Amino acid sequence: MATIDDVAKTAGVSASTVSYVLSGKRPISGPTRARVERAIEKLGYRPHAGARALASARTNVIALMAPLRVGVNVPVIMQFVTGVVTRARDFEHDVLLLTQDDVSGLDRVTGGSMVDALVMMDIEADDPRVPLVAAAKQPAVLVGLPEDPEGLSCVDLDFEAAGRLAVRHLAATGHTDVALIGSPPEVLRRHTSYAERLMRGLRSQAQASDVTVRVEACDSSPSGASQAVDTLLATAPDTTGIIVHNEGALPHVLSRLAERGIAVGTDMAVVAVCPKDVALAQRIPMTSIDLPAEDIGRVAVDMVMTRLDGDQPSETRLLAPVLTERESSTPGPAADG
Fold first, then answer.
1. DSSP of 265-300, one letter per residue?
2. What angle do CA 265, 271, 272 make, to 5 degrees?
3. How much is the average pLDDT of 177-196?
4. Which of 73-82, 123-132, 155-164 shows the lowest mean pLDDT across its residues?
5. Which residues does residue 270 pair with via DSSP β-bridges, in sequence order?
6. Distance (Å, rounded) from C-alpha 34 to C-alpha 21?
7. All residues at 6 or more sequence positions from 332 whose CB lies less than 8 Å from its CB, including other chains
8. pLDDT score of 234 more than 90
9. Which of 202, 205, 230, 329 could form a disulfide with 173 if both were Cys (CB 3.0 to 4.6 A apart)?
10. What is the residue-averaged pLDDT of the chain?
11. 212 with 176: CB under 8 angstroms?
12. Cα(300)–Cα(83) distance, integer angstroms
């Protein structure tokens, strides 16, 4: 039976190069990859995943901690999960999904040899899981940004920049009174990082652009969205632009505006911060800032595999927000109560 050394000798490369061709863990030039693939086919080489894992003392498993907490949007969470799982497959790794909201599961996984590495989601500003991750023997990447990211590897959308971009867009199209219909109260009470960062960017840009801004926490249910819209219009009737950062509430916000006789794009500009498919699924064209959840999941795996392969320094990657305009944002007359 052919071995990896036989393939390397036939292709005229090192055994490590053959391994990188098989795993995709390092970029390999096209001609070199072609030689290795021809050698594999010629020799009938079939790598044995269990043997490779045993030889490297690896499990070929990445733990993904995605707690299904109250207030999280599960379909969006699953987009992140999809990105992690599909990219991990490129590295011949499986994913162990942890959905509980406690530290004990994390301690159990990192304290043994169940997994090679860890990706952790739904990061809070002062997250009790972070000290455990920082002390773990396995490399880890956070999807999110704690208040003190020193020494940690993190990736996320730059939500602070997204908040600034949304306000800048509305200000540039003539809006001086805007509002955020934001995350559910439970998410805000946990000081979830993405929600706080978006509000920080929104408020700083509102001050810089001389725009009045109001924030309404919003339950994702139809009644919660209706209440947020009604409260906003009652307390800030001059509002002509709304930023919605709540995927579950978004369709109900649009429905309530329609019930109130307010036309999106004419009477009220709406900018959604959400995955692109969520914006495109709405009943009217939606201006949106894309949350590239699958891309972020894939980047998280790339980062954690780089750390698994060597002593790489910690880093933070924040993806720049992109706004796509799909409807008129010209301010209309303030809505009647």
1. TTTBEEEEEE-HHHHHTSSS--EEEE--HHHHHHHH
2. 130
3. 96
4. 123-132
5. 242
6. 9
7. 240, 263, 266, 267, 268
8. yes
9. 329
10. 89
11. yes
12. 9
User: CB–CB of 144/194 below 8 Å?
Assistant: yes
Amino acid residing at 194: Y
Helices assigned H by DSSP within the chain: 4-11, 15-23, 30-43, 49-56, 74-90, 103-111, 130-135, 159-172, 185-189, 193-208, 222-235, 250-259, 276-280, 293-309
Name the residue type at position 40. I
**In this structure, are residues 166 and 323 in contact, taking their beta carbons and an 8 Å threshold?**
yes
Type of residue numbered 192? T
Residue 146 CA to residue 77 CA, distance in Å, equals 18
Q: Report all structural domains of the chain as residue ranges with CATH numbers, in order of start.
A: 4-47 (1.10.260.40), 61-157+294-319 (3.40.50.2300), 159-291+323-335 (3.40.50.2300)
Residue positions counted in the chain: 337
What confidence score (pLDDT) does residue 68 get?
A: 86
Tokens of 312: 């790489």
SS3 63: strand
Decide: 7 and 40 in contact? Cβ < 8 Å: yes
Burial, 28: exposed, middle or buried (Cβ in 10 Å; 0-12, 13-18, 19+)?
middle
Contacts with 229 (C-beta within 8 Å, 6 or more apart), sequence order: 181, 253, 256, 257, 260
CA distance 124 to 63: 19
Q: How many whole angstroms separate alpha carbon 197 and alpha carbon 147? A: 10
Phi-psi region of 71 (alpha: psi -120 to 50; beta: other; left: phi over 0): left
The packing angle between helices 15-23 and 30-43, to 10°, is: 100
